[in-house]
Amino acid sequence: MMMKSDAPKLLTLGFDLDTWDGYGARVPITTDISLTTNSHILVCGMSGSGKSYYENALFSKLVLADPHGEFYFADYKSEDSFAYLRSCPHYYAYKNTLQALDAVYARLNARQSGEDESSNPITLIWDEYMANVLSLVNEDKKAAAVVMNKVSEILLLGRSLSVRLITTMQRPDAIAFPAGSRLNYGIVVALGAAIKSIYEMLLPDFMEQVKGRVFGQGEGVALLQGSQLHFIKVGTVQDFERMRQICVKALS
Ligand SMILES: Nc1ncnc2c1ncn2[C@@H]1O[C@H](COP(=O)(O)OP(=O)(O)OP(=O)(O)O)[C@@H](O)[C@H]1O
């Protein structure tokens, strides 16, 4: 049997934006990422909103929160933000991103069948998921559907099997998440300009609270478990070298 620990494990998502801007105080916004909660994370925002910067910072914080975690990184765009990860065995760029998905999906299936009795958290971080899916759809619709179904299965079944998905994209259109699986992101972060159509998809019940808000780069909203809305500021990374070392080690 999988041995599961449901002790709370806290991940800091950012800092309360209004307290920071109003009083200069950094009040962390944290969330439980133990097996008792749904800790799939969706990060979205337009180009330049600070997604990649946030992803690096979040990745290193997650490694510290999940010291026994296993990590895979799929980097579809494969540009400079994650270049330092290129030599890591669990880093998969451009056309190889599906290998990361297949590795994680196989682990999900092995845990589901009972063949794999481990329960340490397995996390797949997938940068530019939507762009990757759109490109697959253009190449081969059936193959793209298989990929989207695997992603949906991870979103639907991952929590209890300790398999987590973190995806970033500009617009999280429902088309890339069959069977309504987008609802299974327990943590949703939208950075930068408040795009009404994106908020309507992700925060339909919170439109009044976000009305009139303006967000700059590295600022935005975080919705936790579909019910707690926060306005967050990512803040600056204090020690890039240490952050990179933590991420490299996690993918090695
Ligand atoms: N919180 C932050 N603090 C300081 N600089 C930031 C922050 N967020 C982003 N930046 C800087 O802003 C620029 C754009 O950020 P980033 O590349 O993360 O955006 P992006 O949303 O990933 O854009 P794209 O989708 O085009 O890759 C980068 O130079 C990055 O270093």
UniProtKB/TrEMBL annotation:
Chain ranges of the FtsK domain: 26-200
Gene3D superfamilies recorded: P-loop containing nucleotide triphosphate hydrolases
Sequence positions that bind ATP: 45-52
Cytoplasm in keyword set: no
InterPro entries xrefs: FtsK_dom, P-loop_NTPase
Top-rank taxon, per record: Bacteria
SUPFAM superfamilies in the record: P-loop containing nucleoside triphosphate hydrolases
Keyword ATP-binding appears in the UniProt entry: yes
Organism of this sequence: Caproicibacter fermentans
Protein name: FtsK domain-containing protein
Keyword line: ATP-binding, Nucleotide-binding
A Pfam cross-reference name: FtsK_SpoIIIE
Molecular function GO terms recorded: ATP binding; DNA binding
